[in-house]
């Protein structure tokens, strides 16, 4: 049975898609997506021998070799340009996902939809998408087995699009929590916390950022124990960051 995380990713794949699942590990996602009838043809890509073998075994056991090609290779090297409509890349860091996309730009030409689940470094991925003509169209957040996951989708940005990627991250003024005045939600914060997630905040989003705040406080404490001059500069930056996140959180309650 699929985890809720993979289930949610699968539900974002449009019917009749041709899918590439990059970093497929046991190929659980493409197997379930083909079995559900949602995906007509899939490529399961894996760079490492162990997971590649596991994927091949899973596909063979499901009897789906006709519909799922298991290929060994780095990132998007396993697909031809024009071969798939949808790419899923899940369970890796945001910077690895961004570099996989960056190294395979020529393969993205006819792709209609990217579905990504970065474990960390979501801001790096959002920035890559913004800078490479991919419009972030949705963000989901879920908790499973004590871990919090974000799932992002993006489509190619059209020149005449009403909302452009950059508009999503434009600095905004929000009313402060005591109702007196406003504070500035910077592009940086929007990239970090997610523009769609902030529009419709859930308790999981608040949980995520409360635990991020705990981590940042921990770092702050260890910095204040340090006697280095650079530590002071870093502390000041970190305090500012903590204050901004706190302000956003109070506004979300
Ligand atoms: N996508 C599955 C999921 O979300 O459950 C598996 C995630 S697993 C933690 C990450 C997988 O990505 C590993 O099997 C690893 O071998 C693979 N991987 C890492 N870098 C890769 C790359 N550059 N190209 C293809 N696969 C990669």
Automatic annotation (TrEMBL):
Q: Which GO terms describe its biological process?
A: methylation
Coiled-coil spans are 228-253
What Pfam families has UniProt attached to this entry? TrmK (PF04816)
Entry annotated with the keyword Acetylation: no
- GO MF annotation terms: methyltransferase activity
Cite the entry's keywords alphabetically: Coiled coil, Methyltransferase, Transferase
Q: Name the InterPro entries for this protein.
A: SAM-dependent_MTases_sf, TrmK
Domain of life (superkingdom): Bacteria
Please give the name of this protein. Class I SAM-dependent methyltransferase
Organism, by scientific name, is: Paenibacillus dokdonensis
């Amino acid at each position: 049975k699929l985890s809720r995380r993979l289930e949610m990713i699968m539900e974002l794949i449009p019917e009749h898609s041709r899918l590439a699942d990059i970093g497929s590990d046991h190929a659980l996602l493409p197997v379930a997506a083909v079995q559900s009838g949602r995906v007509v043809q899939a490529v399961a890509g894996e760079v490492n021998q162990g997971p590649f073998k596991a994927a091949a075994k899973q596909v063979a056991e499901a009897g789906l070799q006709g519909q799922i090609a298991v290929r060994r290779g780095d990132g998007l090297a396993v697909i031809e340009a024009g071969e798939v409509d949808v790419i899923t890349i899940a369970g890796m860091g945001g910077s690895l996902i961004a570099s996989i996309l960056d190294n395979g730009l020529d393969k993205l030409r006819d792709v209609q939809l990217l579905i990504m689940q970065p474990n960390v470094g979501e801001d790096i991925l959002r920035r890559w998408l913004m800078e490479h003509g991919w419009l972030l169209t949705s963000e989901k957040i879920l908790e499973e087995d004590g871990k919090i996951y974000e799932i992002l989708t993006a489509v190619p940005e059209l020149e005449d699009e009403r909302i452009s990627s950059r508009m999503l991250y434009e600095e905004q003024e929000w009313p402060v929590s005591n109702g007196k005045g406003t504070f500035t939600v910077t592009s940086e914060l929007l990239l970090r916390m997610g523009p769609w997630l902030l529009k419709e905040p859930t308790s999981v989003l608040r949980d995520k950022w409360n635990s991020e705040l705990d981590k940042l406080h921990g770092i702050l404490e260890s910095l204040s124990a340090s006697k280095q001059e650079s530590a002071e500069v870093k502390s000041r930056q970190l305090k500012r960051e903590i204050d901004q996140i706190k302000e956003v959180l109070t506004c979300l309650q």
